[in-house]
Amino acid sequence: MMEKLPFHEYHKDIQVIQILSQGKKPLRPAKTNKAFTRFGLMSQLWKYMTTCWAFDPTSWPLACDILDGR
Q1: What is the mean pLDDT of residues 43-58?
Q2: 3-class SS at 1?
Q3: What residue ranges do the domains of the chain occupy?
Q4: What is the pLDDT of residue 2?
Q5: In the chain, what percentage of residues exceed pLDDT 70?
Q6: Can you say whether the dihedral through the CA atoms of 5, 8, 24, 45 is positive or negative?
Q7: Structural element, H or E, at residue 64
Q8: 51: part of which helix (H) or strand (E)?
Q9: CA distances from 26 to 19, 21, 40, 68 (A)
Q10: What is the H or E stretch that residue 70 is in?
Q11: DSSP calls for 3-43
Q12: Distance, CA of 67 to CA of 27 (rounded, Å)
C-alpha cells in the first residue's frame, strides 16, 4: 500500500467515488509488502486505520484510546 495509492486498482475517479459511497475501504496489503517490513504495518495498526475510515464519525476511535492501545 505504501508504494501505491489506496484504490490504485481503479482507473477513474468516478469508480473510486462509487466504491467509497458503498462504504468500501482500501484492501489490506499483502504481508510481503514493504509496508509490513519497513513501516511496521501490523494487524493492530491496520485495525486502527480501518476503524478511522468508518463512514460514521461516532465510530471513530479517540486519539487517547489509540495511544493507550485500546
Answers
A1: 86
A2: coil
A3: 13-67
A4: 52
A5: 90
A6: negative
A7: helix 63-67
A8: helix 43-52
A9: 9, 13, 18, 25
A10: none
A11: SS-TTTT--SHHHHHHHHHTT--PPPPPTTSHHHHHS---H
A12: 24
